[in-house]
Specification:
The structure is a single chain. With 1409 residues, this protein is α+β, with helices and mostly antiparallel strands. The chain has seven domains: 18-181, Ribonuclease Inhibitor (Leucine-rich repeat, LRR (right-handed beta-alpha superhelix)); 187-274, Immunoglobulins (Immunoglobulin-like, Sandwich); 277-365, Immunoglobulin-like, CATH 2.60.40.10; 368-458, Sandwich (Immunoglobulin-like); 461-549, Immunoglobulins (Immunoglobulin-like); 699-771 and 841-1185, Haem peroxidase domain superfamily, animal type (Myeloperoxidase, subunit C, Orthogonal Bundle); 1361-1409, Complement Module, domain 1 (Ribbon), CATH 2.10.70. Helix content is 24%, strand content 20%. The protein has 27 helices and 71 strands. α10 crosses α14 (951-987) and α13 crosses α14. The radius of gyration is 41 Å and the shape is globular.
Length: 1409
């Protein structure tokens, strides 16, 4: 074949007679100026320089891939175009533009798959076109070609053959019917609806379409294309139009348009309008009287949209403002220099375009001097109390009452409240500065009068942490221990030793802050704890009672500094703690939202003591290191071995003991097996009977890898800014966030809803909480962590780069380290006793609904409702749908806190729940509300099927069910979407409880991997009505949803938030779109001068916790350790991501775990990459297998109960416990693509509580773990008893196998005892039944007595009325007696259209024209 090709080329040259007189493209052959041949030239594009006189253009046998628009624009004479045998993949619109004379077009033997609909437009002379031997994809987009060829049959000879789909392979395009193209015309599945909002809020128009044909959604505003150059306007990926910060020009009509290559369809027009309302009176004028010459004010305020205009009339004559009459900006009327002629009726009228409202008041001109009827009286109270002074002054006109303190005028504010028209003065949260003389003065035009009283305030203070060290005594002496408290006034001092409280008696005497030990023995020496407390708080102080001084070698250079260093460290840490507590919990200062953020993460009382001891221990070592370094000029580099070099092991032990790190271990009692076999403890203890603390609250986080600290002990990576890692300085977390992790663009997830994110956060708050430092100020000088940019304990600020686009006036972001727990006693490289710094998990590690119930008995008691014995949780006020909200946190120190982020909004307390973070943002609050309601719903159902159960058994059984529901929802529906099929395979199926598995939370999981959920957060908090359109108040930018509980109270309850979670897609998890800027640039921006950056906080927290680098975790997760950034291509295929990582970190070994994990591309069907998948799967596997109360563990539930739990869905919970949601998809984590996917709640399976029916034989004792028979359990071998039970049961065990007579005697005695107790139980059972019967009869008698004594009611004159009697109180008010209740109605008057309505007609309520 090669020789034929050569012959063909030779012939071409031979027949060439005349070359074109114009230019000829390079290597091409031009014949007689009209034919250009460019064959076999390996061209990848159409060559330039083709003569305009060309009529035949031959471009065969090249490598041309595409033909851009306008390629042939100046070649209008071409009649034949040969493009066959190339590699053309598609033809775009305008590819043959300008070829008006083209007749023959050859495109066969290419790779053409698609042709745009305008590719052959304006080819009016076309006679033949060949498209055979291509890869034509005959889908909906190719339908136009079939129509084109059919329309031009007879004019154009065409060959075009389909290659795909398989059903159409080999068929001619012109012979296909419309149905063959499988072209569903796009249709709307959701159309926009009218939106009515307040101007300035965000408007959303939803529009969704379906169809096989490719389409694009666009929008029209007032029949013109929406201008997307306005950055306030954007279209989400699902077609939703979003308009931020609406202005007047945004109102009008909007229309959604779907365009395809073949057609255009439009929705109906909808309107964006701003709320309008007729005027309504906010404040109405009231009848008043005044003295001649006096000035009076008539108040009148109205609301409406547009803002109404206020006007006044006097006796139906319009008042014109003048020197006598003045109307202020609100609408109040001031009348100066009253005269008798001013007496009459004054009418306030508020009007706008929508209507008007009127209100009348009468002024009477008269006079009577003030008289002091009740003067204020002297009072003496404590700080924090509320004082009330009453001052009743009569007179005509009513005297105005003003209050003075020490002759200074008082006015109302947050603490000082002047109420009841001045007759009462209230001062709340008394301070010592409030003491003094208070005077009330009443004055009218006829004179004035005054009275005064003295207020004495007793000063109080929070007890502080002080300790007496090494108090010594001799055996046989009486020894006095002092607690050294300084709170004022003190209410109590408790003493504890070895975990047990000390009570006054023959051995001990407790008086004030003194504990006297009488005739001390050797066993009395050791460690004592005392707890002074008053109404403001408590402290924990320690007294160490020793017999003799400890002898410690003095050959180490640090020994001379030990005692002073311990004292200095203790003083510094205690001072910082006390200052922080005083700042956060003082009732005498106004608190900010930043205070709330700190409070909600502040260590609990138990965690505080452990964290305090660790800080004293670490600070002591640091002080000694500095002393030695300064005094001996040692070059002590930041290595842990420096402490070993300067301190002996004995002194290290002494420091640990004095700091509290060797305090008495946690008292663990698992002996009450009747309880522990059936229910979890609140704090997670005794879940594992062999290792009772595994998974419990207030224990150290576990680790998958040993921590890395710069000094090997406690200083985090980055503590020394000059230190380099692998030749590079570590980047600032703020730089990593802004350069790599922050994004403006948000891609919507195609599959998952925003509920996926919210459940993840709710679940996280059920499993881990790492408290922040015991102090938010430096131990050294008390400066706050957001005031200084130095790394000094406990402050670890985040450096802000100079190039930062947002933060220009700050060089760092404040950051305080997490609290740490005293070392666990494990061995480290440098100390034979102490381990590196370990952080605390303050809550239980189990999925046990601790976010609902709390993680301690104390928290649980605060949340329970004990008033009815039904096992319920406390609830708060009613919502607009008559469902209860969460209770307000009015106990302890939070009752006076204003729990909202916008200072302009009204005071709203914080909500209380099992987790302190409940108030952080609205969606989280909604989830807490949902589950508290669901507890009460299930507890009520259980009470109906088991009326014999007491409140405790109802509470614990419901808690057990709720925990199981959360476990099932998490593992069945939520987790598969997070870790995908590969992750679920790694998790494996459940094989039963394994007591050798520790379920405690790993540091890597809590601090890095489980924070992946931040990448799913939408920048908008959607709030949707029943039609899944925005509520009138609009959706919220995320930063306005933080700390705003008033929005639940005032803006629709929890339903709009829940619909916004399961009705809107989550943000798609993408490595190039990690976290939206609402989290990285505006977090808590309304509460801080500088908005926080969540990505920066996550990175810095990982360094604070000593997490090793990303590359280290790749190894333990089965991935290869990389030596270059290009080797990350498998997990991070985006070149831009790898380039940014290299620019930031310089070396792969320096990448932070959180950053590396978030940069990985998610696995198929998952939301995390392979490294985070490894960490998350490990934790969830341990959380399941190491939980004795896992819901699938045999024996935890009966088989029929387990079957019910396995059909539980979050949709079911929403249906039962939301405000009024009636439609929801079956799986709320999966998007509903069509409206039909939202099912009526009647189609969602419900939990059948009847399978928990308890057919008991001794119902009187059901639920009582301390019943009589419990104390005498027979046939329990001590071999299988718990330790505490064994101690009790030893009296029942034979002491010697040969002493059979004793055994027989003991058995006889026990048999007799059993017989007696059996008879006692029968007697008690009979008495109990008798009492129950008598109580029932007594209730019936009381009910009949109340009915007989309370029938009838009394009217306003005191006359008794019968049932159904009616009477008129006045012309407008009618009352009716119903049983023993009075119900009244008031006639509502219509708005009159006449100019001068007649005020009143005798016997009628309403005015007439």
């Amino acid at each position: 074949m090669e020789w034929i090709r050569c012959l063909w080329m030779v012939l071409l040259f031979c027949v060439t007679n005349v070359l074109s007189q114009g230019r000829c493209p390079e290597k091409c052959v031009c014949i007689r100026g009209s034919t250009v041949r460019c064959m076999f030239l390996q061209l990848d594009r159409v060559p330039q320089g083709i003569p305009s006189t060309t009529t035949v253009l031959d471009l065969r046998f090249n490598r041309i891939r595409n033909i851009p628009r306008g390629t042939f624009r100046n070649l209008g004479r071409i009649s034949t175009l040969l493009l066959n045998n190339n590699q053309i993949e598609g033809l775009e619109n305008g590819a043959f533009e300008g070829l008006t004379e083209l007749r023959y077009l050859y495109l066969y033997k290419n790779q053409i798959k698609s042709i745009e609909s305008q590719a052959f437009s304006n080819l009016e002379n076309l006679q033949q076109i060949r498209l055979d031997s291509n890869l034509l994809q005959c889908d909906c987009d190719m339908k136009w070609l079939s129509t084109y060829l059919k329309t031009n049959t007879g004019k154009i000879h065409a060959t075009a053959v389909c290659d795909s789909p398989a059903a159409l392979h080999g068929r001619h395009v012109a012979q296909l019917s419309d149905a063959d193209f499988n072209c569903d015309t796009p249709h709307f599945t959701m159309e926009p609806q009218d939106v009515i909002i307040t101007m300035g809020n965000t408007a959303y128009f939803s529009c969704r379409a379906e169809g096989n044909e490719n389409y694009k959604i666009s929008w029209l505003h007032n029949d013109a294309e929406v201008d997307f150059r306005d950055n306030r306007v954007s279209v989400l990926t699902d077609g939703t139009l979003m308009i931020h910060n609406t202005v007047d020009s945004d109102k009008g009509t909007y229309q959604c348009v779907v365009r395809t290559p073949n057609q255009e369809i439009r929705t109906n027009k909808v309107q964006l309008t701003y709320s309008r309302a007729t005027p309504s009176m906010v404040t109405t004028p009231s009848d008043t009287s005044g003295q001649v010459g006096q000035s009076v004010r008539l108040s009148c305020q109205a609301t409406g949209i547009p803002t109404p205009v206020i006007s006044w009339k006097f006796n139906s004559i319009t008042i014109i403002p003048s020197r006598k009459y003045a109307v202020d900006t609100v609408g109040n009327l001031d009348i100066a220099d009253l005269q008798k002629a001013d007496e009459g009726v004054y009418t306030c009228q508020a009007s706008n375009e929508e209507g008007f409202a009127v209100a009348d008041a009468r002024i009477t001109v008269q006079g009577e001097a003030p008289v002091l009827a009740q003067p204020p009286s002297d009072q003496s109270l404590n700080e924090g109390d509320t004082v009330r002074f009453t001052c009743d002054i009569s007179g005509n006109p009513r005297p105005s009452i003003t209050w003075y303190k020490d002759n200074e005028l008082l006015s109302s504010n947050r603490r000082i409240q002047i109420v009841n028209e001045g007759r009462q003065l209230r001062v709340v949260l008394l301070q010592s500065s409030d003491r003094g003389t208070y005077k009330c003065q009443g004055e009218n035009s006829a004179g004035s009068v005054e009275g005064s009283a003295r207020l004495a305030v007793t000063q109080t203070a929070v007890p502080t942490n002080n300790r007496e060290h090494d108090t010594e005594g001799r055996p046989g002496e009486d020894i006095v221990l002092l607690c050294s408290e300084d709170g004022d006034p003190l209410e109590a001092t408790r003493w504890i030793r070895n975990g047990a409280s000390i009570f006054p008696g023959p051995k001990y005497a407790v008086q004030g802050n003194r504990l006297t030990i009488r005739q001390a023995t050797d066993s009395d020496f050791g460690r004592y704890e005392c707890f002074p407390e008053n109404t403001l708080g408590f402290a924990r102080n320690v007294v160490n009672l020793g017999i003799r001084a400890r002898e410690i070698p003095t050959s180490f250079s640090g020994h001379s500094f030990v005692n002073p260093a311990i004292q200095q460290a203790t003083n510094q840490v205690d001072s910082a703690i006390n200052q922080t507590i005083k700042n956060l919990f003082s009732k005498n200062r106004t608190h900010s939202v930043q205070d709330l953020i700190t409070i909600f993460r502040y260590p609990s009382a138990d965690a505080l003591q452990l964290a305090r001891a660790e800080e004293i221990f670490e600070q002591t070592l640091e002080i000694i290191r500095r002393h030695v370094n300064d005094g001996h000029k040692y070059n002590l580099t930041s290595k842990a071995s420096s402490y070993k070099e300067i301190l002996s092991p004995g002194h290290l032990e002494l420091i640990a003991n004095m700091s509290g790190c060797f305090a008495n271990p946690r008292i663990i009692r698992c002996s009450e097996m009747c309880y522990h076999k059936r229910f979890r403890s609140m704090d997670g203890l005794c879940n594992n009977l062999h290792h009772p603390t595994w998974g419990a609250s207030v224990i150290a986080l576990q680790r998958m890898l040993p921590p890395i600290y710069e000094n090997g002990f406690n200083t985090p990576v980055g503590w020394d800014p000059s230190r380099v890692y692998n030749g590079y300085h570590l980047p600032s977390p703020r730089l990593v966030s802004s350069f790599l992790m922050s994004t403006d663009h948000v891609t919507m997830d195609e599959h998952s809803t925003h509920m996926l994110m919210q459940w993840g956060q709710f679940l996280d708050h059920d499993m881990s909480l790492t408290p922040q430092s015991v102090s938010n100020a430096r131990f050294s000088d008390g400066r706050y962590c957001n005031e200084t940019c130095e790394n000094q304990y406990p402050c670890f600020p985040i450096t802000v780069p100079r190039s930062d686009a947002r933060i220009q006036h700050a060089t760092c972001l404040g950051f305080s380290r997490s609290s740490a727990i005293c070392n666990s006693g494990s061995t480290s490289v440098f100390y034979k006793t102490f381990a590196p710094r370990q952080q605390i998990n303050a809550i239980t590690a189990f999925i046990d609904a601790s976010a609902v119930y709390g993680s301690s008995d104390f928290e649980a008691q605060r949340l329970r409702e004990f008033s009815n014995g039904r096992g319920l949780l406390r609830e708060g006020v009613l919502s607009k749908h008559n469902k209860r909200l969460l209770p307000f946190d009015t106990g302890n120190f939070l009752h006076h806190f204003d729990c909202q982020i916008e200072p302009s909004k009204r005071h709203v307390p914080c909500f209380r729940a099992g987790d302190n973070r409940v108030n952080e943002h609205l969606a989280l609050t909604a989830m807490h509300t949902l589950w508290v309601r669901h507890h009460n719903y299930i507890a009520t159902e259980l009470h109906e099927v088991n009326p014999h159960w007491d409140g405790n058994i109802l509470y614990h059984e419901t808690r057990k069910i709720l925990g199981a529901m959360m476990q099932h929802i998490s593992y069945k529906f939520w987790l598969p979407q997070i870790i995908g099929e590969s992750g679920m395979n790694k998790l494996g199926s459940y094989k039963g409880y394994d007591p050798s598995v520790d379920p405690s939370i790993s540091n890597e999981f809590a601090t890095a991997a489980f924070r992946f959920g931040h990448s799913l957060v939408q920048p908008i908090m959607f709030r949707l009505n029943e039609s899944f359109a925005p509520i009138p108040e609009g959706n919220l930018p995320l930063h306005k949803a933080f700390f705003s509980p008033y929005k639940i109270l005032e803006e629709g309850g929890i339903d709009p938030l829940l619909r916004g979670l399961f009705g809107v897609a989550a943000k798609k998890r993408m490595p190039e779109e990690v976290m939206n800027k609402e989290l990285t640039e505006k977090l808590f921006s309304l509460a801080n001068a500088v908005g926080q950056d969540l990505a920066s906080l996550n990175i810095q927290r990982g360094r604070d916790h000593g997490l090793p680098f990303y590359n280290d975790y790749r190894e333990i997760c089965g991935l290869t350790r990389v030596a270059s950034f290009d080797e990350l291509a498998t997990e991070m295929p985006q070149r831009s991501v790898r380039d940014k990582l290299q620019a930031l970190y310089g070396h792969p070994d320096n990448i932070d775990l959180f950053v590396g994990g978030m940069a990985e591309t998610p696995v198929d069907d998952g939301k995390v990459g392979r490294t985070f998948l490894c960490i998350i799967a490990d934790q969830f596997k341990r959380s399941r297998n190491g939980d004795r109360f896992w819901y699938e563990n045999p024996g935890v539930f009966e088989s029929n109960q387990l079957a019910e739990i396995r059909q539980v869905t979050l949709a079911q919970v929403i249906c039962e416990s939301s405000d009024a949601i009636h439609r929801v998809q079956r799986d709320v984590f999966v998007k509903a693509d069509r409206d039909e996917d939202y099912l009526n709640c009647s189609h969602i399976p419900k939990l059948n509580v009847k399978v928990w029916s308890d057919c008991c034989t001794n119902c009187e004792k059901s639920g009582n773990f301390q019943s009589l028979t419990n104390h005498f359990r027979r046939e329990q071998s001590s071999q299988f008893s718990h330790r505490e039970d064994r101690e009790h049961n030893t009296i029942l065990q034979p002491q010697s196998p040969t002493d059979n007579s004793q055994i027989r005697t003991l058995n006889d005695q026990m048999s007799a005892m059993d017989t007696k107790f059996s008879g006692m139980q029968n007697e008690i059972s009979g008495l109990t039944k008798t009492v129950v019967t008598l109580k029932r009869k007594l209730r019936k008698i009381n009910k009949l007595m109340r009915k007989s004594s309370q029938k009838g009611c009394y009217d306003n004159t005191g006359q008794k009325r019968k049932h159904a009697d009616q009477w008129k109180v006045n012309d407008c008010k009618t009352c009716t007696c119903k049983g023993d209740q009075v119900e009244c109605t008031r006639e509502t008057c219509p708005v009159l259209q006449c100019a001068n309505p007649r005020r009143r007609v005798q016997g009628q309520c309403c005015p007439v024209c």
